[in-house]
Amino acid sequence: MAAAAVDSAMEVVPALAEEAAPDAAGLSCLVSLPGEVLEYILCSGSLTALDIGRVSSTCRRLREVCQSSGKVWKEQFRVRWPSLMKHYSPTDYVNWLEEYKVRQKAGLEARKIVASFSKRFFSEHVPCNGFSDIENLEGPEIFFEDELVCILNMEGRKALTWKYYAKKILYYLRQQKILNNLKAFLQQPDDYESYLEGAVFIDQYCNPLSDISLKDIQAHISSIVELVCKTLRGVNSRHPSLAFKAGESSMIMEIELQSQVLDAMNYVLYEQLKFKGNRMDYYNALNLYMHQVLIRRTGIPISMSLVYLTIARQLGVPLEPVNFPSHFLLRWCQGAEGATLDIFDYIYIDAFGKGKQLTVKECEYLIGQHVTAALYGVVNVKKVLQRMVGNLLSLGKREGIDQSYQLLRDSLDLYLAMYPDQVQLLLLQARLYFHLGIWPEKVLDILQHIQTLDPGQHGAVGYLVQHTLEHIERKKEEVGVEVKLRSDDKHRDVCYAIGLIMKHKRYGYNCVIYGWDPTCMMGHEWIRNMNVHSLPHGHHQPFYNVLVEDGSCRYAAQENLEYNVEPQEISHPDVGRYFSEFTGAHYIPNAELELRYPEDLQFVYETAHNIYSAKKENVDE
């Protein structure tokens, strides 16, 4: 009987949603049902938010069922934006109708801003003040971020420009939030500092688009702790560590009991789970990101030590971090409590080397040099983070000249957040932005700060100030958009067009054209260094700006390029800056690029068609 009533009512509901004046008999049938049945029907997923709004306006009974804080609007919110539900507690009172409206408005605002970015910033890097519109938005930031994530997750090969700028905005928003959290974290007293938490902030800042949380990483480590406890139980079923509860900070005082914990840890980490130091790929930034260290079960001494330290402390062994040169270590006290201790009263643990326990002499042998007693001392969280960021900084400097230097930029931001008056790093940051041609106003601010901190840097500062001001003036002098027409006689030798997938004849790389010149427009020095004169047509031939599959941007001579008869997507981070869609055969330029090359798209369609037809004929033969 109840099932029949539900089926009958389900047929009535869509009609109510569409009809301005619902049938009285149908409405009577519906409202006579119990409230739970009505809620079940309205939450079935067949109705949109607009339908629910119409249904609730038909009578008082349905309006009560569709109350703003009830299950019906909660379900509408959950179905539309499921990822946001984790931000709400089951015990909180929530006006779900109002939340729906606010989230909907935030989504529209987000799309409006993303759509404006291509027109505003196509010809330059998004400036420092380019995100001011976002920072001034009303409403919860999580709603705005969620819409950006929705854009990034759009299926297919379309909306590439939207995805490109949504990614940039989301990257900026999350990094700003993480950096503020890190600064607040560093201001806390030492009692509240956590080595793991600080390391997670670094991980999050360098990977802002990844879903990395301290809670998840702690849960991963807790699962390892459980395995250690299982092993420990087999050795000593009455071991005090087995009685510890999560979150407790109890410590075991007996050395023998501590030793049992460390033995169990070494077995689980290195024998059972196969953790190991990454000797084969030591200089890889992934070795410093805690979520990657746990997933890949490998790292370098400092990251492996933080995992080891966290597990040991949870099980009551008071290990301490040692900022040892060239090889981060942990120390384990062997002396009596309250006694005056020196470096020989500790055993030093190499987490990178499978938890090997070392004497002072063996530590020196490990790095091949004698060191002073001060270098065996314990360090606080800030010093540990400084070393981690310093490692990332070194890796960032190793990036190739064609890269965006994102790791170097991120590590500089982190280091200067901890030590804002480091003159040499400020100077490096100013030079980096100047080299990349971005944020000239910020470059001037940095240089002014350097001059205040160290007037002796006036030579380097003066040079950069002069050239940065010249750069700003040149930008002001730029007028309009340069339009290149294929029909112009001076462009008669241009054989290819923007959006075509090409292959380099000599180096074999795949690329997509995003610009062209009738002749080489680079300076004499570049032409000489690239040995352009050795080409049969030299520099008096069309040259093309191309995005290469390895992430680089290059300037290639026409005679060195050929059509790629098997076109494929080019996985370059800047593809979305220039193109809106990949058709499977070629890219379609976005509005800003097409404005500069208005006759290229038709040429691309014709060329792609001819290539496909020729390929089909070859197959048929």
UniProtKB/TrEMBL annotation:
Pfam families: F-box-like, Transglut_core2, YccV-like. Residues 27-76 form the F-box domain. InterPro entries: F-box-like_dom_sf, F-box_dom, Hemimethylated_DNA-bd_dom, Hemimethylated_DNA-bd_sf, SirB1_N. PROSITE patterns: FBOX. GO terms for molecular function: DNA binding. NCBIfam families: yccV (TIGR02097). This is F-box only protein 21 isoform X2. It comes from Castor canadensis (American beaver). The lineage of its organism: Eukaryota, Metazoa, Chordata, Craniata, Vertebrata.
